[in-house]
Amino acid sequence: MSKRLALENIGELQQGLVTAVVDSAIKRALDDIYQRPFLDAKRKVTIELILVPLPGPSGELIGVDAGVQVKDSIPPQKTYGEILRVSVTPDKDGRGVITAYLNEPQQPLFNQGNDQDAAGKSN
Fold it and tell me: Which domain, by its residues, includes 61?
């Protein structure tokens, strides 16, 4: 016996694919919350049911195309900015050409994994 389309069975559309798609979006939002609990921004999962009438040759309704669109909204991952050293040199026409240089990696304050102090003596 056919089921009437209702909230409790929307996940069964496309042989259950809708459930998998919705669950995946929810998992992405929850994973982001777990990875960045200090970020109090909202994570959103929007589930939109789309129904399109299918008319027959005489204009009579013969069916409904039912689908689901799932959108998730997770705050972007950002890093702090890094100030780069620049140089400006003139090109052949006298216009300035700007070049930015990556910073050298910083040396660690303590030498990890080595039992020698800064003077090279063993402890």
Answer: 8-73
